[in-house]
Amino acid sequence: MKKFSLKKTLAMSLAAFSVFGVLFGTGCQFHQSFDNLVPEEYGEWDGNYIYRGNVRSKTTGEAGEQIVTSVTIDGVSYSVSGCVDAAINGDDMFIMVQINATDLQTDSLGIRNCIVKYNVKDKTQDLIFQDGVSIQNATETKTYEVHAIERTTENGLLLYGYEETTPATTENTNETQSRNVWFTIDFNGNVIGIDEMNYYSYTRQSDDYFTRVETVADTTSLYYTTWGQKEDKFVADITPTATETVDVDFIDRGGVTGFLIAYYAAEKQTHSDQRLVSLRFYDVKTDTLSDFMKVERQMKWIESTQYGYFVAYDWGEVTYTDSENQKQTVEMQQNCALYEVDYDAEGGVKLNVVYEFEKDKDFSNIGGVADGKAYVWAGWYTSAFGCSGGGYQSEYYSLDLTAKKLTKMKGDAYRETVALTKSIYAREQGAKCGDYTYYLQSEKLTTVLNSTTRAYMLQRYDATKKKVETMQLWKSSGTQDEKAKYCHMMWFNNGGDMDDFIVRNY
After folding, report:
1. Which of 348, 226, 236, 335 is closest to 286 using CA atoms?
2. What's the Rg (C-alpha) of the chain?
3. Which of 141, 377, 381, 489 could form a disulfide with 320 if both were Cys (CB 3.0 to 4.6 A apart)?
């Protein structure tokens, strides 16, 4: 199944709240470098193999090899020149490969797409679909090409591709019609259905849900659709005021599926952070819309909780006396409070105030929430007194969400805990094998000359020891660092979603 991490919206997307940016003081920005991510030691090979696209390698990135090297059609063997896409169902991988076949009816370059089912345990392969498959009846012939594998289904594969319809009589060849379509094939490669919806006119929110925004006169309406749905479903009038922008995010958690609609202040603000105005939620299963929050406060979503928690605060001024006995005035975040958006399948969506922090300190930097605790970095200013030079102070805390108790932490322990917390969602979606879970984590590296580079890490989480190790590490583009360790053929030019992989001990 495809995995998506998509931002969409009318006017504004949420900025990711990086845990690394909160560790070094108010107003400071931490520049992530590749060296900071290189582990003292990479994880040792555990006997497991990772499969992605058309490549298998050890989990350490060593011994990379192509899975499907050739395809046989009508008794002729053709070499595989590339991997376009892939989907996974248990031990079966459905790999869309390109073959060079100039003697087959293909495009002018002689390139044809094929879908091969490969069983990773038995190491067997079967050709189940190829470009040029035709269905003929008395009036017309329909010919199909495949461009992408959307997903596996109970009965086969949902594909995106190209359909050409040619009338049975060829007196007027201008009657030939072509269109891009989603179509379903069974596991033997037979075309069994066509989805007539034009999903490209929508914004993709998840594997199954798409949204569309329509503005008529002064009213902006939100609609959604899903696979096989014949008509759009109206969600809500989401018209913002002249001073608002709107963001729509898909939620699927706690038995609740729907759309979180957030309104933010759009007028010019003193600070670049967001000012939340109100929150609404549309529940797909119950077809209900809830307006569960209306307040105007600065806020930050806590990234690791996937729209489950946010911290709200105000900006204020603080005056203190420095070591030279001079009065200093600084601006900082104050009156911080932690909020939870409770997605309850039975009671509906609610907003809870979890904890209100000391009003004169900045508790707005929350690295993550997991296992009943929030991890907080706090800052404040004190006046010089005695041997104390005063000025900026900081401390790390864990907040027990049940006991409502703050406990101090050492900086190293805080950073290690937050790193685990930050990746908790990725771990939940990761590939499991034995006691291990494997997942990808990425970090934005320092921007140089307006170019953005990311570092990717294949992480291994040991559920027994609650330990994370980096197995592979590489840059998204450009020259690779000599300290990188990864399988190039696995992660580059090997189609499909990057985090769509499995791990097996065979």
Report:
1. 348
2. 27
3. 381
